[in-house]
Amino acid sequence: MPWLLRVTAIYGSCLLVVAATVYLIGRLLLAVAPLSLAVVIALLLTALLNPISKLLRRIRVPAALAALGGVLTLVGVLTLAGFLVTNQIANQFDDLGETLSDGLEEVQQTIVSGPLPIDEEQLDSAIEVLQQSLTDASADIDPAATATATLETVGAVLLALVLLFFLLKDGSRMWGWLLRLFPDRLRPPVDEAGRAGWWAVSRYIGGQAVVAAVDAIGIGIALLVIGVPLVLPLALLTFLGGFVPIVGATVAGAAAALVALVTNGPTDALLVLAAVIAVQQLEGNLLEPLIVGRALKLHPAPVLLPVTAGTLTAGIAGAVIAVPVLAVLHQSGSVLLRHQAEQRTTAQPAPKPDPPPEQP
């Protein structure tokens, strides 16, 4: 067989084995999706809250109380955000109903009188079709399946909080136990690779939180200046969307522009859209490269493919974990490849000295 065909067959067989292994692992993780999601969320939250736990330990707080402090910080922030959002929606609910009604009528008039070839009858027919589709979709919802999904979600959240507590308290001991599963000669490179991967996750989640907070503050200030209602819920949506690469910022910006369109009209919607684009350009061209890009040393182009694959495979959860997984593989793989190259260099025999010249 030709040399090229032999090499292609060997590499192709290896790739098929690796692809089959990854596929089977993925199917297994999807089969226990609530458990997998709880573990991933706990790991990401551990990377985010670990500095708080370390700070408490430095001031001589016991490990259990330091871990509990990190968990309570998370619960307190989420509870405060939920209370503020609910309070704002409740205060603006009455005025918002009338504003939405007037805004929808204005949007309809703008569409009918605009350059698009759509008359009022066609628009009313499209609205009726949309309403009927929503009614049919709501009728097809299975109450039992909805209750099961709700219980699974609640169980996954509680499991994630419990895992978060134990990871903050005993994370180092857990990692030491995992290292003991490897032979002695493999423990140093595996330890270094694991720490490099964890460093990448910590830098990613911390940097992404800063970027998401800047996005939320910038868009919130723009909405407040323009006079769009529901500023706090939209800013919170922008912050949460910042953790979903590519998709999250787009959805959050579209939601803000849509609220501005139906409440304040097309002019304010265009202003909100311009503000969202400006903030996203600031994020993509300055904040993301400075904070996240330098930490992970990853170009946005190769990040797009894993994010797309994660979204197609596991939805929003896949999009969230795609970049951390890629960062871990990149950092840990680089360490392992470097150790392998060093071992090959060490294993090479020393060159033999040249024989002495013959005497005349």
Describe the structure.
- The chain is mostly helical and 360 residues long.
- It has 2 domains: 32-113 and 152-181, no CATH class; 186-344.
- The chain is built from 10 helices and no strands.
- The longest helix has 51 residues, at 63-113.
- The protein is globular, with a radius of gyration of 27 Å.
- The two termini are 52 Å apart.
- The mean pLDDT is 79.
Instruction: Report on the biggest sheet.
Output: none
Helix content: over 70%
Name the overall outline: globular
Count of individual helical segments: 10
Q: What's the average pLDDT?
A: 79
Number of separate strands: 0
Main attributes of the structure:
single chain; 360 residues; mainly alpha; 2 domains
What is the topological layout?
Blueprint: H1 3-31, H2 33-58, H3 63-113, H4 120-139, H5 143-179, H6 187-226, H7 231-241, H8 247-264, H9 266-296, H10 300-347
Helix pairs in contact: 2-3, 2-5, 2-6, 3-5, 3-8, 6-7, 6-9, 6-10, 7-8, 8-9
What can be said about this structure in brief?
This protein has 360 residues and is an all-alpha fold. 86% of the residues lie in helices and 0% in strands. It has two domains: 32-113 and 152-181, no CATH class; 186-344.
